[in-house]
Amino acid sequence: MAKVLMKGNEAIAEAAVRAGCRFFAGYPITPQNEIPEYLSWRLPEVGGTFVQGESEVASVNMVYGAAASGCRAMTSSSGPGISLKAEGISYLAGTQLPAVICNISRGGPGLGSIQPAQQDYLQATKALGHGGFKLMVFTPATLQEAVDITYKAWDYAERDRNPVMILMDGCLGSIMEQVELPEMKEPDRTHTDKWSLNRPADSTRGDRVLTPYFPEALLELQNTSRARMYERWAKNDVQVEEFMLDDAEYVVVAYGIASRSAKEAILNLRKEGYKLGMIRPITVNPFPKASFEKLDYSRVKGIIDIELAIPAQMHDDIELQVKGRAPIYEYCRSGGVLFDDDGIYAAVKKICDGGAK
Amino acid sequence: MLSINETLCKGCGYCIKYCPKAILEMGSERNKKGYFFPHLTDAEKCIACAMCATICPEGAIELTEKEGE
Amino acid sequence: MAVYKRPDTLKKTPSGFCPGCMHSLATKLIAEVVDEMGQHKNCVHIVPVGCATLNLVYWGGDVLGAAHGRAPAVATGFKRSNPDRLVFAYQGDGDCAAIGLAEIMNAANRGENITVIFFNNQTYGMTGGQMAPTTLIGQKTTTTRYGRDPETTGYPLRMCELLATLEAPAFIARYPLTTPKGCRDAKKAIRKGFDIQMAGKGFSFIELLGNCPTNWGLTPLQTLDYMETNTIPYFVPGVYKDKFKDGVK
Question: B2-63 sits in which CATH class?
Answer without folding.
Answer: alpha beta
